[in-house]
Amino acid sequence: MREARELAFIENLAKLLSELLQADHVMIAEVFDDSPTTANIITFYSHGEFQPTVSYDLDGSPCEQVLSTESCVFNKGVCESFPRDAMLQQLGAASYVGVPMLTADQSKLGLLAVLNDQPTDYAKPVLQMLQIAAAQAAAELAQLRISRNLQESQRRLQTLMNSLPGMAYRCLNDEHWTMEIVSRGAYDLTGYRSQDLINNNRIAWGDLIHPEDTQNVFEAVLSAAKRQQYFRVTYRIVCANNQIRWVWEQGKGVANKAGEITHFEGFIFDVTEQHEHQEHIAEIAFRDELTGLANRAALLDYLHNEYESNKTQDYLLVLLDLKYFRNVNERFGLHAGDRLLRLVAQRLQDGAKDYEDMVKIARVTGDEFVVLLRSSNEKVEQFLTVAGHLKKFFETPLLVGEHQLDVPFRMSGSFSYRAESAAELLQQASIAMYEAKQHELDYCVFDEALQRKVSAERHQTERFLQALAQGELSIALQPQIDLATGQCVGAEALCRWYDQELGHVSPAIFIDIARKQGVLAELGIQVLTKTCSLMKEWQQRYGQLPKVSVNVGAQQFAAPDVVEDFLSICKGIEAQAVTLEITESDLMIDPQLALTVTRRLRDHGFRLAIDDFGTGYSSLAYLQQFAVDILKIDMSFVQAMIKDESSKTLVNTIIAMAQTLGLETIAEGIETAEQAQLLKELGCQGGQGYYFGRPVPPEEFAKTWLE
């Protein structure tokens, strides 16, 4: 019996019990945890023969009682006791004894049952023998289950390994990475069969690694193994057909009881296609599609690597801005502009061939190019020399279609020793280019003076934004005078900024900052809020309220709730007392929007004035449609009209047009009695300027004009 293994042991046990007990039927069945109500017969010895094994339902059978108790004995009448047990009824057995098959930890694996066709008195020794036999069967069955599970695990592992798109392995931690286990995927990956790699029969895995990658791969693997971490590494291998493939490997070291790494286990995938795809994406990402030059990203990447790896080398970055490029697009079309940019790129590439110091040419924006050079000790002199060379590249006009076009450039430069990063180097050149454009220069280099200027402007911007956020701006008021009577009929509220560090800052400066920072609308709201608060105070103190004008920017007009915001701020004040001034140029940014907003504001009672009239080139047709009350004549015309007849004619025309349209006129910038008298004679109704009074704080204005 002990020499038999697995099912043979259990079959022999059933046969032996039948002979020893002279039993008609002996059955051994197992029950699984995932199906506890079903018995699966392992062997069934009946009337001297083994019967086919089947499964049956335990419900309503004596076997069900066996599994719920230690044993179950029926000396007679078992069929009558269990009428729903179909198999029992088919056998026609009269007696039944069953014992559970228990493991060492008393888990029930199944049952052993003996049945006779005649009533049988089962003595106690018989029951004990059956329990011993059941224990033996349970031990063998448990071993059988372990063996089956192991075989199934091995089968699944083998299936999984051979189903992987790459190669699974186990190898020694030696200089060749000698393979002990290799999945079938090795052939598709390398062109070598599994048996070629196992024990280095034909080639060692270490010999497949590309020579240029060998050291990096082994260092990465051993470094991760020392930290007891997974390693992940991408490298090249040389396949059986000498083809180079990219692979990605992940694995981990396996240590013995002493903690020594003796093996590595992991898997390796072919990532050649992904690597080539990434290289293609990188090529696209780093190349300007129109000109084929390096783009902004490629330039910054190159410079970043140079900053990291070659800290001793200085560079000169020259930024070239193509003048009048917009005119080319407008005159000849976008296709001509694209053609011009390609020709410029080609000229730069051709010219750079004669200059070894030129290491990179890039197109960074629409009409801006960069030439990067190794810097010499001459610095600014080098920039001027390079600018001269670049200018010579374009001495010959470029042929765009049928047109020969001159290509003038504006150039700026920056040096890497002044910049801490690639992005800062390019930014410095852009700052110098902005400076060149502001002052109509052909050349500009970012130097200490420009750096101080930029730092001062940045500091000024930060201080202004802080003052705006904290509500530290104030207002001043300049009187508006009735030219006929000389009486003050109103005032214009003007924003003022006094900083503890910077002192009084010109409105031209901080309004420009607000425009660049996109906070003009917020600035306008603050001025209107402070003005309305002051007007409410005047109304309570003096019982009278002069008309006050407040400037409104185009950004405020573009706000979706501009009318509702104005009404909320001016609540408690008669809308007729507030005049909203918007410049003619701002009105013409979006005339249709301006028409809509001005009409709504007029409907709520606000007075509207067009500021700096005569400078914005608005058509008479629009002027007729705008719902305005006042035209403010620009100070440039007022101050020139005494000596310039054309300016006088223009002022006269504006006044006459306003009278025709039923609008008031206010002249700005009046500085002399002669100007005031002439304006009065021409029919202008109001005026403001230093001749009548400068902008003053609210307290001084009230004392002078209200008390």
Automatic annotation (TrEMBL):
<dbReference type="InterPro" id="IPR001633">
    <property type="entry name" value="EAL_dom"/>
</dbReference>
<dbReference type="InterPro" id="IPR000160">
    <property type="entry name" value="GGDEF_dom"/>
</dbReference>
<dbReference type="Pfam" id="PF00563">
    <property type="entry name" value="EAL"/>
</dbReference>
<dbReference type="InterPro" id="IPR043128">
    <property type="entry name" value="Rev_trsase/Diguanyl_cyclase"/>
</dbReference>
<dbReference type="InterPro" id="IPR013655">
    <property type="entry name" value="PAS_fold_3"/>
</dbReference>
<dbReference type="InterPro" id="IPR052155">
    <property type="entry name" value="Biofilm_reg_signaling"/>
</dbReference>
<feature type="domain" description="EAL">
    <location>
        <begin position="457"/>
        <end position="707"/>
    </location>
</feature>
<protein>
    <recommendedName>
        <fullName>Diguanylate cyclase</fullName>
    </recommendedName>
</protein>
<dbReference type="InterPro" id="IPR035965">
    <property type="entry name" value="PAS-like_dom_sf"/>
</dbReference>
<dbReference type="InterPro" id="IPR000700">
    <property type="entry name" value="PAS-assoc_C"/>
</dbReference>
<dbReference type="Pfam" id="PF01590">
    <property type="entry name" value="GAF"/>
</dbReference>
<dbReference type="InterPro" id="IPR029016">
    <property type="entry name" value="GAF-like_dom_sf"/>
</dbReference>
<dbReference type="InterPro" id="IPR003018">
    <property type="entry name" value="GAF"/>
</dbReference>
<dbReference type="InterPro" id="IPR000014">
    <property type="entry name" value="PAS"/>
</dbReference>
<feature type="domain" description="GGDEF">
    <location>
        <begin position="313"/>
        <end position="448"/>
    </location>
</feature>
<dbReference type="Pfam" id="PF00990">
    <property type="entry name" value="GGDEF"/>
</dbReference>
<feature type="domain" description="PAC">
    <location>
        <begin position="231"/>
        <end position="283"/>
    </location>
</feature>
<dbReference type="InterPro" id="IPR001610">
    <property type="entry name" value="PAC"/>
</dbReference>
<feature type="domain" description="PAS">
    <location>
        <begin position="153"/>
        <end position="228"/>
    </location>
</feature>
<dbReference type="InterPro" id="IPR035919">
    <property type="entry name" value="EAL_sf"/>
</dbReference>
<dbReference type="InterPro" id="IPR029787">
    <property type="entry name" value="Nucleotide_cyclase"/>
</dbReference>
<dbReference type="Pfam" id="PF08447">
    <property type="entry name" value="PAS_3"/>
</dbReference>
